[in-house]
Amino acid sequence: MTTVKATAFAQGRGPAYVVILGRFMTNIGFFMVIPFLAVYLTRHAGMSSLQTGLLFALLEFTRRGLGIPAGWASDRFGAARVLVLGLLVEVVAYLVFAVAGRGFWLWAGAVALIGLGGSLNNNGSRSVLASAKSGGVAANLSRYYVSINGAALIGPLIGTALMASGAIRAGFVVAAALHLVFAAVSAVLLRGMHGANATPVRPAAMAEALRDRALMLFCALAVGGWFLITQYRIALPLTIVEQKLSADLVGLLTAGNAVVVMIAVTLVGSRIERRGTAGRLDVFALSGVVLGGGWLLCAVDGVSPIVASVIVTSVGESLFCGVVDAIVAGLAPPGRIGLYLGYSTMAWGAGGVLGGFIAGGFDLAADHGALLLFWLVLALIGAGSALGTRAARASLAGAVDARQAAAPAEAGAART
């Protein structure tokens, strides 16, 4: 009876809901403290702005830059195991945060751990969802994205209260506890699922994926979308400052972005699941137009155009994130989902880095009265991503469909 129930759980939506709810819980912990970490480091840990910047650069590198090795580990040792390992590493990091004091190198070690743990946790979670037996890949990944945005809305509210009461260290401990609970639940409920590959995945597979033209082409196109999404953290606050609007708008608009994304992804998730690969690529192309066009609205001064921009770009973000990982998972050969999602994470990181560099030209454009040109560049990046996707639509759709058709035969051969 126990075996039957376990099989039913594994074949149903159980694993997906464990991951989605668990990530919602742990992301509340993440967003409860990480957005306030720079303030804590400079005011209470005695860090200079340079040291704080170096710590955040280290965080970004370890969290995004290790996506490919994390993906290889998910395929080699099992996504559920890597998920649990990543959570436990993050538990250690948060606990070190609580006692780190003023030692820069201790903070650097803890930040590196939280980035590494987050990379393992993120890839393991997405790999479990992408290989779930029920619910649909696109629909499961859409629900996952809704949970992240929900946590991004709730976590900072709790963090604000902790900072106001001087209890941010308690927040570190609570975040550690939330990650520990998710690790324990995953270790029990996901035990035996998504195990190690019957055929070991060699480290050379990380380089072999670079020769997959379809994967590299799609990841290159995805960089544009991640670049445009990054502007919520850079160009949006800068335009509010440049227009001499209230700084409180940044928090309100960020919260509004999370709400719109949650609603939009919920509405489109199941519809995207019913689309074939070509249809998903059409949605992906549309997201570039909507994101780029949405930012162009900021060329008009005033609160109303900025609010409209956030609404439009939030819809574009929802379309983009609703399909990007589902398409990558479709390109993955059997036993390579984690690795391919790792390359998707690298595209995310590349988009973020480029977004930071190009957004650095905001002040230069403002000083020369050429902000319209800046927003036009963003719109053109979105349009370029859309046109590139349309041009590659047939070849990408053909690659996904051919690999999905061949997957059952290859998986059967691997078992024999």
List keywords for this structure.
416 residues; mainly alpha; 18 helices; globular
How are the SSEs placed, and which strands pair?
Layout lengths: L1 H10 L2 H20 L3 H7 L5 H16 L2 H11 L1 H21 L4 H27 L6 H28 L3 H22 L15 H4 L4 H18 L4 H8 L5 H26 L3 H20 L6 H29 L5 H23 L2 H6 L3 H45 L1
Helix pairs in contact: 2-8, 2-9, 4-7, 5-6, 5-7, 5-16, 6-7, 6-9, 7-16, 8-13, 8-15, 11-14, 11-15, 11-16, 11-18, 13-15, 14-15, 14-18, 15-16
General description of the model:
There is one protein chain. 82% of the residues lie in helices and 0% in strands. The model has no long low-confidence stretch (mean pLDDT 84). The longest helix has 45 residues, at 371-415. The protein is an all-alpha fold. The radius of gyration is 21 Å and the shape is globular. It has helices at 2-11, 14-33, 37-43, 49-64, 67-77, 79-99, 104-130, 137-164, 168-189, 205-208, 213-230, 235-242, 248-273, 277-296, 303-331, 337-359, 362-367, 371-415. It has 18 helices and no strands. α4 runs parallel beside α7 and α5 (67-77) runs antiparallel to α16.
Short description:
The protein is mostly helical. Helices cover 82% and strands 0% of the residues.
Give the oligomeric state of the chains in this entry, treating copies of one chain as homo and distinct chains as hetero.
single chain
Major β-sheet profile: none
Which class best fits the helix and strand makeup? mainly alpha
Number of strands: 0
Radius of gyration using CA atoms only: 21 Å
**Secondary structure tally, helices:** 18
Helix proportion of residues, in percent? over 70%
Unreliable parts: none
Series of H and E elements: HHHHHHHHHHHHHHHHHH
* N-to-C CA distance: 28 Å
Give the DSSP E fraction (strand runs of 2 or more residues).
under 5%
In one word, what is the shape? globular
- Overall pLDDT confidence: 84
